[in-house]
Amino acid sequence: MAKATATADDEIFALRLERSAPDIWPMLDALYGRHPAFDAFRANLLKTLKKAWDARPVDLKRLDLKRDLEPDWFQRPDMAGYVFYIDRFAGNLRGVLDKLDYLTDLGITYIHFMPCLKPRPGDSDGGYSVMDYRQINPAYGTMAEFEQVTAALRARGMSACIDLVLNHTAKEHAWAKKAAKGDARYQDYYLMFDTPEMPDRYSETLVEVFPDNAPGNFTHYPDLGKWIWTTFNEHQWDLNWANPQVFLEIVEIMLHLANRGVDVLRLDAVAFMWKRLGTRCQSEPEVHMLLQALRACSRIAAPAVIHLEEAIVAPSEMLPYLGRGQHDGKEGNLAYHNSLMVQFWGALATRDTRLMGHVLSTHFPETLRNATYATYIRCHDDIGWAVTDEDAAAVGMSGPAHRGFLSEFYEGGFPGSFATGALFQVNEATGDKRISGSFASLAGLEQAQKLGDVAGVEMAVQRMLLGHALIASFGGIPLIYMGDELALPNDYSYLDTPEHVHDSRWIHRPRMDWQAVAQRHDGTSPSAQVFWGTRHILARRRAVAGLHAGNGTRVVFPDAGGVFAFQRLAPTGVVLCLFNFTEHWQHISEDWARAQGVSLMHDALSDHPVETHHGAVALPPYARVWMV
Ligand code: GLC
Ligand code: GLC
User: Fold this and answer.
1) 503 CB under 6 A from ligand 2?
2) pTM exceeds 0.85 for this model
């Protein structure tokens, strides 16, 4: 019996290997074919894949089959994500188990555990400086406890996402330590130079990610006699992906994590993985070959797992991460919709949705194959005003002026601004100013409460629900950052925390407010209002089959400047989603709505009929409507 099972398992592996062969070998050939140890590498990779498959627990193999049968599992409208740091949410992994009922009540089916592998001590860039990929951060618990958590999630039909930081390791990682000791094998895992000549040449075209506190892209270590590539912080050493050994190591780690019950691997900062002289070293073609090959490895040895690619890049640069063009359907299953996020904040500040409509209709296809967006309004990172001069000009705006305005507006300096935020990484050379701040504070709640402005508080609540309704309907998996369902304000305690004070992103990574959770049932506090509003939005999302991410999203243009609109193109009929980005009433003609495919004049979000007066649909301030 046991023998028969093993044979069937081997056969499944062989079939999967065969299926994915065109996605993996040509990529690796192109990347590493000229490497002297290429044949050994290929053989080792095969061994690694088979070993991981053999070690895969039975219940995960069952999940593999289940998802083979339901390949759209992550595109369904019952998917809704929630993102947190384990310590800030529940103390530790055991605490998380106690809080799952709360998340289920909210309607969450997917949890992104912010970096939870063992980080370097002290400042670890929020855990993105990893020293051991096989251990859980001891402050959170153990790998065994992590497996208990993923099993508990699985039992509830929930998915677990964790970060795989693969552009760099902490300089305290075992590989880096060996490299620092002079071990040539491990020095080849990183990008180390004996003289500043090449770093200087590369630097001519590189951009700086953290110009304030980690300027430049290289760090000189006089005691090692080396210049080392450090795109992010000094303690984050970039990996040398041109070395096939690095590929092999990461595949081993990736499948090891997959076998612990991880459903979604968030591949961090992928754009930076390949370096080419004379370029920005972002989104080079080899990055996509690497990502397609990594994806194929998961599909062979842990097919239940999907990849979320974190590439915060311009719209046209982003689509290949979702596997468009020659990697169609074969790269990331998920990628952050950074443009949707940026355009939400832009339209909210300007009360003008023209740029939003232009960007989202011209740069993004209506449908994606075997992939979808991670839609979000806030995450753990800052907001960079990724609006190109060309796009701004297309709607008669100046790019630099618009970006400058948005920074001022959300920092809170602009007269009339409702926002309270903090600057992040001001770059004097480029004029670039990024913004940190919680959803609630950027949406106006903090300021209105400080001023005792009751109407302002109400507007802030409506802005937050506008955002949550937008990401719940646009197409993709909505990701809610912890606390944004309760309108938690900015957290200024980072200013008193030595390892965080230089990094304003901690302003929007608060500790969970369990008192607010307990009080959500009574009262009409903004926090309770946002909670019930968000819970309702997710419940209605689950009820509206047309919101399935496989259905197309087509931006349409109503005759009202402050309204953003799109159709969800479901086979059962159109869902017309409307969002009023102003604090004024807006009117949409009923004829126009019907011409977009609306027939019942029913709002699937409120689950009430849409009322019309004199042939027009009236949208209150910050209204959101899903018309069918
Ligand atoms: C990603 C993370 C960010 C981190 C960076 C370096 O972009 O989202 O928080 O600073 O990678 O790992
Ligand atoms: C830049 C990077 C992104 C990172 C962020 C951190 O936007 O492109 O990967 O998350 O900086 O602030």
Assistant:
1) no
2) yes
